[in-house]
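Re: the 145-residue chain
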Amino acid sequence: MRVLIQRVKYGKVSVAGETKAEIEQGLVILVGVGQGDAEEQAAWLAEKIANLRIFEDPEGKMNLSVKEIGGQAIVVSQFTLYADSQKGRRPSFINAAAPELAAPLVDHFTALLREQGIPCGQGVFGAEMLVEIHNDGPVTIWLEK
């Protein structure tokens, strides 16, 4: 699994003009599921993200996690994180998992974040989404497991 984490002051995901999730301070997490990914990767990433110290403490140092600041998250499935553009001009997505594997794993990942105590909203798997991200910092972190 691959995730792109963005620390945000505000985040929102909409489908066909309808808001599906909206948060203030927290994380927007773009999630790609690759072939062969399983619940083990989702569990490792959920625990890592919940405890990743990327929010500033009173001294301005990144010492606090999203849990410690009482932040929220939005999880957005994004198969394009598995784009391979080494050859040609059109990216290949053959390394992305099929929807029937990826969709339940994204849901499981979101549930695991909630179990870690992080309120989570979610996009709609496979939908054309509009994602609004007010990146804070900017802080953007790539994780892969």
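The radius of gyration is 15 Å.
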